[in-house]
Every structure is written in structure tokens, then in C-alpha cells.
Amino acid sequence: MIARKLKTFLDERRVKYYTLVHSPAYTAAEVAAAAHISGRVLAKTVMVIVDGAMAMAVLPSNHRVLLDDLCELTGTEDVRLAREEEFKDLFPDCEAGAMPPFGNLYDMSVYVSTDLAEEAEIAFNAGTHTEIISMGWHDFERLVNPRVASFTT
Fold this sequence. Notes:
Elements: H1 4-12, E1 17-21, H2 28-35, E2 43-50, E3 53-60, H3 67-74, E4 79-81, H4 84-87, E5 109-113, H5 114-117, E6 121-125, E7 131-136, H6 137-144, E8 147-149
Parallel strand pairs: 3-5, 5-8
Antiparallel strand pairs: 1-7, 2-3, 2-4, 6-7
């Protein structure tokens, strides 16, 4: 079932989106294959810690985060990947590792790759390992207000 917080947020704002149920998948590549969605459009949410604060780096599922670029973007050298045990309790309505890229719902910053911003749509985990949401990029950008920058390879 879609993360309750996310569903309520989207429905209250009358955002058009659709959900797609797929077979259980745990990596971004598996999700893209199971959902028959391009890796360019499927976003993965990578949890990072920036100056001691949890944040989301959101990028195409077929890309990797460049931590040095995130350091430059955030103006600090204190950026690292978060371990699952550090963030899993922050998303009580989500399965571990399936959190949607809506950091604003969880009081954290969101950094989005410019590659995703160039697409008309964005798809992402809906809080489970069996469902994704797809919606227009501009709706996502308006609702999340992420910082869009280049930090991937």
C-alpha cells in the first residue's frame, strides 16, 4: 500500500498521478525492470547525511551519486551515504529502502539530479517494494521544491 502520508499529501493537492503494482523488487534496476520503466525516468532515493542532517539525493535509477559533487553543491566536506539503520525509523509508513523522494514530508532537504529534471515525468517507489508512483515532473518540483543540480554519473 502506498505510504499513507504521501497519498494524503498528493490527494489533498489534487495532483494527477498513477500507481503501478509490480512484482517485489529491491534494487533500482530490479524496480525499473519489474515496472517496465526506463532507468532515466525511475528515480531512486539515496539517503545522505550533510553536516549531520539527513537528506535525500534523488537521481535516475541508472546513475550513481558523486559525493564530491554533493560536497561542492552543499558547501561542506561533511557529506556521506547514510546507513539504513540511521534512517529507517524516519519513514514509519514505508518499507525500509522504499521511501518516496518527498523529503519535505519528513523534514529533510531534497537534492535532485538535473537529469531527472529534464524528463516530463518522474516515477518512484511509493513506500513499498511492490508499487511505484508516476507523475509529472513539474508537479513533483512544485510540491517538493528540491534543489536541482548535477551530482551524478
